[in-house]
Amino acid sequence: MNFRAVRAIYLFEMARTWRTLLQSIVSPVVSTSLYFVVFGAAIGSRIAEVEGVSYGTFIVPGLVMLSVLTQSIANASFGIYFPKFVGTIYELLSAPVSYFEIVLGYVGAAATKSIILGLIILATAALFVPLHIMHPWWMLTFLVLTAVTFSLFGFIIGIWADGFEKLQMIPMLVVTPLTFLGGSFYSVNMLPEGWRTITLLNPVVYLISGFRWSFYEIADVSIGLSVGMTLGFLAVCMVAVWWIFKTGYRLKN
Amino acid sequence: MTPIISVANLSKTYGSGFKALNGINLEIKRGEIFALLGPNGAGKTTLISIICGIANLSEGRVTVDGHDINRDYRAARSMIGLVPQELHTDAFESVWATVSFSRGLFGKPKNPAHIEKVLKDLSLWDKKDSKIVTLSGGMKRRVMIAKALSHEPQILFLDEPTAGVDVELRKGMWEVVRALQASGVTIILTTHYIEEAEEMADRIGVINKGEIILVEEKAGLMQKLGKKHLKLHLQSKVDAIPASLAAYGLELSDDGRTVTYDYDTRGERTGITSLLSDLRAAGIRISDLDTSQSSLEDIFVSLVKAS
User: Fold this and answer.
1) B11-47 pLDDT, tens digit each
2) Residue A89 to residue B89: CA distance in whole angstroms
3) Cα B278 to Cα B241, B253, B265, distances in angstroms
4) Nearest-CA distance from A104 to chain B in Å?
5) How far apart are CA A201 and CA B50, in angstroms?
6) Domain that holds residue A11
7) What is the ipTM of this complex?
8) Is residue A252 domain-resident?
């Protein structure tokens, strides 16, 4: 194991985070605060309690997940896409590092960044609404698991993308709709029966449901199912990454 | 002595079906400067990319100091420093950070003293805190060399290292290369400046259309393939070469005062002695003479044309 290489990649990526502090941390916090103002205060004041908690409080876990998901993908996809784009990937490919070490460095840094971000958003939310976390360890477990899984997913997108448009396409066309339809702003139980069934095909539902359960013990699906689905998606991403490196897909010609 | 790099029956076919390399066999000797020459698209960069792990090979085997580049990639790659042809740099990093990053990536412990020496050798020390985006092209090229040298490689690949670098800087760079060779580093370079290969290399390989068409000691190559030209300056102007001298294939200059004779140093007889006596017989007197040898460039052009 080339730990020095993992460390070098990790620190290199984290240095990029601090260098671009404004767009990597400040802007997601600002946009989440806007959600609180619009959905929590303006619209939320006209909505009754959802399953026993005020609407503003109800949407907190969903909003945190929304940011963690999108930022994990954005961080990790950009992190690996950029060296491909400017050509510095040559160094990574010619270095005595294994694929596992490359992934560990990049995905580790991307996940770290979105976990920090998630915690900052949570702290910001506490300024707007009273927060109570019933299962803090489960909360952290879901946060870390989600950050890692979607950073891995972002890494795959970053390798697949051969232009900036494609880099944006998956997050815009797939992830954002899935997150919005994944119960960030409502309980799946509020939907009519037919839509409810369709919604259960959305993997994000399980993440948000599990995450929300760790706060309020309110869940759309059982906690076991939430953990299982998250681990399942993690496994799918791992297999995809393994295949990418085995074949050299879009990395080596 | 065992070769430091050994390439056996190496072929590379791209997904498009284009065969970039075709059955390459090549051995690089420990400690030499090897120049790989070839026209654009001959396969130079593909060959380097495969040895360094950037491209997959289709057939054949490559070993670096006995380590298979696929099976034992860690050992193989940690010996190699690569300076690619294109200027690929992280724009917003400082010179110091990017060079230190390379050392870490290759699994070497921190060594600020070594990085300092590399930057000083390449005249980059005063730029160590500058962002790479602010540097000139020649400086960026040197940053890439510094990155390759940061992890103390035993083999250095330089793919067109002096393209776009001014004369002064080029000389400085070659001094660095010579010093590296003196410290035991094996250097493989590709270049378009043939005089550079002629000046620097111990051995020369010529590649064309994905095949190695020649590998020779530079001195031997130039002697072996070198044609010499004998230039005779005449005492008085002649209007035409006399018929008695037709067999020599002489060339008369426009002013009628010099005659050039091409001969082959490989030949048992150069024909010079008989030419001189035949000239005297024809009444042509000579005031001066000089000989010159064809450059590597002439050799190269004739080789590539022939293949």
Assistant:
1) 999 988 899 999 999 999 999 999 998 888 889 999 9
2) 10
3) 12, 19, 20
4) 13
5) 44
6) 3-247
7) 0.87
8) no
